[in-house]
Specification:
heterodimer, A: 11 helices, 70% helix, B: mainly alpha, 9 helices, 74% helix
């Protein structure tokens, strides 16, 4: 009996049936349902921004919030799709047009004046409490979901997980604080998140890996 | 075997049908070997690749959704494992290309495995696959060098290293299970 034949025998003998992973869209919905309490907790701790009732009437603010949430959801969907072998290519790239559209909206709001900005620290770009809690919390929840699937693209899964967590944190942060509204600042925020993706994505090889033996 | 046949077997396997699962795994073997053929140099590398794929299919079997084609699912996993296998092969070639150091290492008799207090390893060794058992016997029990063991068994040095590594990992698991029962 060869090793391969023996291995097949052992695998078959240990097959007690498995619970199928739900479709990626249900996994996405579950992730969103788990993440929303994080945003609500931060709203409970920090309170909503004082001018929330005013800004929700501004189409540009709503568009930016919608695109922040849309990018988070699309990046999470793409990451989840990468963890399912054989998914279609569009599902893995769906976040790019939404992100592009978000950047375009910010570009339009920048206007021809552009703007100048001096940044001296993390706290001037992101809220030092809301951003880490929402981004790291939501990224961990997504990682927990992805680890139950197949680690066939660990680096891309990690990169998308960071984009999803970061975008969701920007969405939440803008519900809580009114000090991060400047278009140039938003651009810097998004570019910082996008830069963190490739920098930290190689960690995916440690987080998402095949089990041994 | 056709995609629809494989899909039916995999769905049955997900529901706990062991016979269908064995048939599915046997059915995908030619596909896996076909993917590795021409890319993996030795039969040992091919065996390692196929076995890694089978273990990965086992781990990922919950991700298959009924109604979807099996082949893209299977190929995505196999491509991932193939790139891992090729990376391992290139790394090993690099080490071997460094010359005398590896030659020295391969000629030095291996230190015998530490004895496990109060345990008789013989019955556990007997449960291992043939290659792993032979590798552990030659290198860890009889203390042969990698080169001598390779010459005696006809298994490449690289494959022997892999077999010993896996054999030790399996023994650890078995000992862990025994301790749990104790």
């Amino acid at each position: 009996m060869t090793d391969t034949t023996r291995l097949i025998g052992q695998l078959a003998a240990h097959n007690d049936g498995v619970r199928r992973l739900p479709h990626p869209r249900w996994r996405l919905l579950r992730w969103l349902c788990l993440c929303l309490p994080l945003v609500l907790i931060m709203v409970g701790i920090e309170g909503v921004r004082p001018d929330l009732m005013l800004v929700v009437r501004q189409p540009l603010w709503l568009a930016q919030q919608g695109l922040a949430l849309g990018t988070a959801l699309a990046a999470a969907y793409a990451g989840i799709s990468f963890s399912v072998p054989g998914r279609e290519r569009w599902a893995k790239l769906v976040w790019l047009p939404i992100l592009g559209f978000w950047l375009s909206v910010i570009g339009i709001s920048l206007g021809p004046m552009g703007g100048a900005m001096v940044v001296t620290g993390f706290s001037e770009i992101f809220c030092p409490l809301c951003f880490p809690v929402i981004s790291i919390g939501s990224a961990c929840l997504l990682a927990w979901d992805m680890r139950r699937a197949a680690p066939i693209a660990p680096v891309r899964m990690m990169g998308l997980l960071l984009v999803a967590g970061g975008s969701l944190a920007l969405f939440g942060e803008r519900l809580i604080h009114d000090g991060f509204e400047a278009p140039l600042l938003m651009l810097v925020q998004i570019l910082a998140i996008l830069a963190a993706g490739p920098l930290l994505a190689p960690l995916g090889r440690a987080v998402f890996r095949w089990k041994r033996g | 075997m056709e995609d629809a046949d494989l899909a039916a077997l995999l769905v049955a396997a997900q529901e706990g049908d062991r016979r269908a699962y064995a048939a599915f795994l046997n059915g995908v073997l030619p596909l896996l070997r076909g993917m590795g053929r021409g890319k993996l140099a030795s039969a040992a590398d091919m065996d390692d690749f196929v076995q890694d794929c089978l273990l990965s299919l086992h781990q990922a079997r919950a991700t298959y959704q009924p109604g979807r084609p099996v082949l893209p699912w299977l190929q995505a996993i196999a491509r991932n494992r193939l790139s891992d296998a090729l990376r391992r092969t290139y790394r090993r070639r690099d080490v071997e290309a460094q010359g005398h150091d590896s030659e020295l290492l391969e000629n030095v008799p291996q230190p015998a495995a530490e004895e496990v207090e109060g345990r008789e390893l013989g019955p556990l060794l007997a449960q291992l696959p043939d290659r792993q058992r032979a590798a552990l016997d030659m290198l860890k029990v009889r203390g042969m060098s990698l080169r001598d063991a390779s010459a005696e068994s006809g298994i490449s040095v690289g494959a022997l290293k892999v077999a010993v590594h896996r054999g030790i990992a399996s023994l650890r698991q078995m000992l862990g299970r025994e301790n749990e029962h104790d």
